[in-house]
Amino acid sequence: MEILPEMAKFWVLLSVFVPSLLCSIFVLYHLLFNRVLRHALHNHVITVLLIIGLIDELTFYPWMLYYLPWQNAWQRSYMFCLLLGFIDWSLYIAHTMIFAWAMIERHILIFHNSWVSTRKKRLFVHYFPLIFLLLYWFVFYFVVYFFPPCDNRLRPTSLVCIYPCLYDNYTLSMWDFVAHQIVPIVIITVFSSALILRTLQHKYRMRRAIHWRKHRKMVSQALSIAFLYVVILLPYTIVYITRNIYSVSNYFINVFYIYINFFTYFVILLYPFVCALSLPEMQIKFKRMLQLKWQTARVIPTT
Question: pTM of the predicted model, to two decimals?
Answer without folding.
Answer: 0.88
